[in-house]
Amino acid sequence: MKLYRFTLLFLVILVIDGCNWHKNRLNIDVSSIKIPDVIIHRYDRDLFNIPINSIQSGLEQIQNEYYFFLGTDLNDSKKLDDMKAYLENPRNIDFQKACETQYKDLTKVEQGLTEAFRHWKYYFPEVKLPRVYTFISGGDYTNPVQLVDSVLIIALDNYLGKDFKPYLTDGLALYQLDRMKEDHIVPDCVREIVNAMYQGVPAPATLLGGMVEAGKRQYIMDALIPEVPGYLKMDYTKEQYSWAEKNETHVWAALVENRLLYSSDGQSSQMFLADGPFTMEFSKDSPPRLGEWIGLQIIRSFMQKNPEITLQMMMQENDAQKILTLSGYKPEK
């Protein structure tokens, strides 16, 4: 009886550990990494606080703080006219007012970015941490976050909640609206940082190559923001993330049985790696980018089974087949 209980307890521990095995390598203590706390510079607020009838003098007062946006020459009449038109644009005014109402402070985001930057510095000690700014894009939904010349800029008007009326009248898809809220700001910032690491990397030739590369980026996100829920890092809803976890075996079987892993026709990559409301091959309850999800599981297995491989070594390994083989990836039925 005692042996039975011991065996049962061992199995329970094994199951629990198995659910969290991929986190082991990323469960690190970064408290010794000393960096300044992130302060988000509110260009959106300070710019719109300038009286429109004294725009030049107002810009001169904030010029040093926001040199990245304003540059040096504030005597250019065209620049001043463009700025006045921007500040008087009713759409921009509405977006700014909504941001001011919803984001009286950004303490939660600052804390999240500070923790992410601490992990970033741990893994990449040579990195120059960026200054962080918010601004009003006026509804530019293509670039909610940009990393430019050690400056991280956040279009705060991209995070006003799915019920914000201009989003609805602009015809945004429902899956996009689900992501336009505060808890997506930090993951979006980290995703932009990770994408910047891969600038200039050629596109993989096969679906497997694309899956592995996408999985690498997601794994780095896991490393930089390990405490952020997985569904936010994947840009999934909670329900979609649960679907992916429950159906991992079926998705992998579909890829293997239909001989899609080594496909180079582009159609397979579009189906399994392109964003959208769901993955066409499966039900409408499925999340999009299931190839990315499987790629992440491959990379997690690869890193767990090869502890000598560092994050930098993983990034530099471009042989997707080698990674798959060494990962020993095979989801349980």
Produce the secondary structure layout.
Layout: H1 2-20, E1 40-42, H2 43-48, H3 55-62, H4 67-70, H5 77-88, H6 90-102, H7 107-123, E2 131-135, E3 145-148, E4 151-155, H8 165-169, H9 174-177, H10 185-197, H11 207-224, H12 230-233, H13 238-246, H14 248-257, H15 267-273, H16 290-305, H17 311-316, H18 320-327
Parallel strand pairs: 1-2, 2-4
Antiparallel strand pairs: 3-4
Helix pairs in contact: 7-10, 10-11, 11-15, 11-16, 11-18, 16-18
Number of strands: 4
What string, H for helix and E for strand, traces the elements in order?
Answer: HEHHHHHHEEEHHHHHHHHHHH
Q: Which structural class is indicated by helix and strand composition?
A: mainly alpha
Rg from C-alpha positions? 23 Å
The main pleated sheet reads as: 4 strands, mixed
Distance between the termini: 30 Å
Biggest sheet: strand arrangement: 1-2-4-3
Mean pLDDT across residues: 92
Question: Low-confidence parts lasting 5 or more residues at pLDDT below 50?
Answer: 1-19
Overall outline: globular
Q: Count the helices. How many?
A: 18
Helix content: 40-55%
Strand content: 5-15%
